[in-house]
Amino acid sequence: MALEIRPIEPGELDEFNRLVRIGFASEDDFKVEMPPEWTLCGFQDGKMATTYAAWPLTMQLNGVAAPIAGVTMVGTLPVFRRRNYLRQVTARHFEMLYEQGERPISALYASMAAIYQRYGYAVVSTRTAYTVEPRYLALTRALKLSGEVREEGDDEDDRLLDIYHRFIERRTGYLQRSGDFMKIPGAPFTTLMPPSKAVRSRVVYWEDGEPTAYVIYSAERDMRPGRIMGQMLMILDLAWLTVPAYHAIWDYLAKMDLVNEISWFQAPADDPLRHLLLEPRKLNITCGDGILARIVDVERALPLRRYSKEAKLVFEVVDDLCPWNRGTWRLDTSPDGSVIARTSETPQLVMPVSTLAMLVFGHLSATEAARMGRLDVTDSGALAAWDDAMRTDYRPSCANSF
Questions:
Q1: Which of 67, 329, 348, 398 could bond 379 through an S-S bridge, CB–CB 3.0 to 4.6 Å?
Q2: pTM of the prediction?
Q3: Cα dihedral sign for 178, 179, 183, 187?
Q4: How is 183-214 classified by DSSP, letter by letter?
Q5: Which helix (H) or strand (E) holds 102?
Q6: CB 20 within 8 Å of CB 73
Q7: Cα(89)–Cα(79) distance, rounded to whole angstroms?
Q8: Alpha-carbon Rg of the chain, whole angstroms?
């Protein structure tokens, strides 16, 4: 029988959560209150075989708030795997997004990037992690700090939210947050939660009577063999508006004398700490794939972001899952906006839709993509214009999982 693809019914939420727990090897009590209309699952002979859902999120694209589909809870029951069920569900979701015309970009965090790159997704950000002892947080150039560090309560969400949104204003990949600072609009779950039952602390740095940075962290006992009476501190969120404020947060963390280890698993790809430490190797930096994104609707997606340069970009898109994207397009960019339309002009570049996502997010330049064979160049003189037009103010990053 053909796979039936549809949202779940309210009475099927328990089965949806059971499959998600199996797919992600989660605890028995793991449960997400997912609105049924946000799901899209595959059923074989009436039995749920593949789970799939998408949050309606808003993400920054080089300083512009863009609506995206945040894909989540994806999995196939082991007895139904290797039947292309997920590909069928994914293709149907893309069709729905195209028909609705509201969210032309799909994004996710992948447990295995290879699964989604087969469907036109590309890695568009780097997840950077630090693990450092406080004693190694000495900087090469210590600034004179005149501000004050204060502990904030949970009732100060508006203050932190203002810092956060000013911090992400011109960035790419960060999600908009709601009036409840710990919530992501469109996703009915709490973010930035500490591991286990660790205590969460919120600290704000004030300069000249204004809050200019914050750090949210949790700390718990270090129970690893050979560690006695020490603590482990995990940074859950950090945002700053000025250089002194950034230095002040790390100066505060450097004084955590009872802490054996500080971890930050969501540092921005262009975070400056590695360039400031006396001994940067003590950060023990690890990097991996961050967000994966997919351009579902080229015509609606590309005008969403901001372009700082005027350019005429003519390109051909290769897309085996979204036929409406195939063909040659002309994108005219300027600081005042952009216009895109199909064209009969000769393309300057020919690329798969996955490479286009990397360029749109600023994860790669066109020149870098050409050097590694991720696109074909028919007009090498156009590469500089592509590089200038697609450049983002900051490297793409995201402080939240979804």
A1: 348
A2: 0.93
A3: negative
A4: EETTEEEE-SPPSTTPEEEEEEEEETTEEEEE
A5: none
A6: yes
A7: 17
A8: 23
- SS3 of 271-335: CHHHHCECCHHHHCCEEEECEEEEECCHHHHHHHCCCCCCEEEEEEEECCCCHHHCEEEEEEEEC
The answer to whether residues 28 and 91 belong to one domain is: yes
Cβ contact 200:220 at 8 Å:
no
In sign, the C-alpha dihedral spanning 50, 73, 66, 320 is negative
Mean pLDDT of the chain: 93
- What are the structure tokens assigned to 150, written together? 């204060």
Torsion-angle region of 86 (φ positive above 0: left; ψ -120 to 50: alpha; else: beta): alpha
How many other CB atoms are found less than 10 A from the CB of residue 327?
16
In a shared domain, residues 143 and 39 = no
Q: Using CA atoms, how far apart are residues 348 and 313, in angstroms rounded to an integer?
A: 7
**Would you say how long the chain is, in residues?**
402
Amino acid type, 250: W
The residue among 238, 272, 289 that closes a domain is 289
Q: Are 44 and 1 in contact (CB under 8 A)?
A: yes
Query: Residue 93 sits in a domain of what CATH number?
Result: 3.40.630.30
| Token output for 131 | 């693990």
The count of domains in the chain is 2
Checking if the pLDDT of 26 tops 60, the result is yes
Q: Which residues contact 380 (CB under 8 A, 6 or more apart)?
A: none
Is the residue at 318 inside a domain?
Answer: no
**Is residue 382 a part of any domain in this protein?**
no
Copy the structure tokens of residue 197. 């039952």
pLDDT given at position 321: 97
Give the amino acid at 83. R
- The two counts, helices (H) then strands (E), for the chain are 9, 21
Percent of the chain with pLDDT over 70: 95
pLDDT in tens, 345-372: 999 999 999 999 999 999 999 999 999 9
Report how far residue 93's alpha carbon sits from residue 6's, in angstroms, rounded to the nearest whole number. Answer: 10
Decide: 381 and 354 in contact? Cβ < 8 Å. Answer: no
CA distance 239 to 353: 32
Burial of 285 (0-12, 13-18, 19+ CB in 10 A): middle
Least confident of 132-136, 138-142, 150-154, 196-200: 196-200
Q: In terms of domains, do 41 and 179 share one?
A: no
In a domain, 300, yes or no: no
Do 134 and 282 belong together in one domain?
yes
Same domain for 257 and 134 = yes
